[in-house]
Amino acid sequence: MAKNVVVSLSGGMDSSTLLLRALKEYDQVTALSFHYGQKHSVELERAKSLIEYLKSKGHNVTYEVIELKGLVNLLNSALVTGGDDVPEGHYQEDNMKATVVPNRNKIFASITQAVALSAANANGNDTDIALGIHAGDHAIYPDCRQEWRDIDDQAFRIGNWDSEKVGYFTPYLDTDKLGILKDGEVLCEELGLDFDEVYKRTNTSYKPYPSGNSDYKSASSVERIEAFIALGRRDPVQYEDETGPVAWEVAKAAVEKVLAEHSA
Predict the structure, then answer these.
(1) pLDDT one-digit tens code per residue, 85-94
(2) Angle, alpha carbons 186-230-181 (nearest 5°)
(3) Alpha-carbon span 40 to 91, nearest angstrom
(4) Dihedrals φ, ψ of 79, to 5°?
(5) CA 10 – CA 204 distance, rounded (Å)
């Protein structure tokens, strides 16, 4: 019996690595991205580009973008168009709570569950849902924690017939961003993919420039760059600041300064 999975794919580093893990672990993979009016909608372009790259390497993924743009004027978050400025600094500081989107993972999980259950009933194969929630987000994002996942799963099972056909795949729940990136290195080798080609097709920046280039000062970027520094690899995305595009060494040095100040 085929192993099927539906992946919630934001276009960020974590969910993109999750997609690679799904390709390794499952026979049939569906990926869903969500357009909810996020300022960093460049992540959707990166997700599409990644899907195209994977297909060019012989990996088949069914992909859909779910339009939720009607939410943009109704959500109170710095991440959506019209919201406050995205804060800068270390990703564990309290001001990063401004980047919480109310109930975001519940919205995404509910749609992913609906698609997974529909697929399971249609083709007779049990189907998992895959979420890229990880330990690095536990402090700021309550919907990235084990407790949320377990209660959300319980609500799904109470509210649906045949819910036993759907399972969870959250391999990074107790892993930080460095651990995810390390797994990405291994997966790229196992799947015959080029690491830089994969990760340049991801966006982690919550404050990307109109060019599509990433900033290196917002908390999400700081966390990503820290992982690449710890891994000893150059991040293949292009960084930028108010002066224009900058070399990796500039972004790396700026983040090393933030990390040093935070640990002082």
Answers:
(1) 766 766 665 6
(2) 30
(3) 17
(4) -85, -15
(5) 9
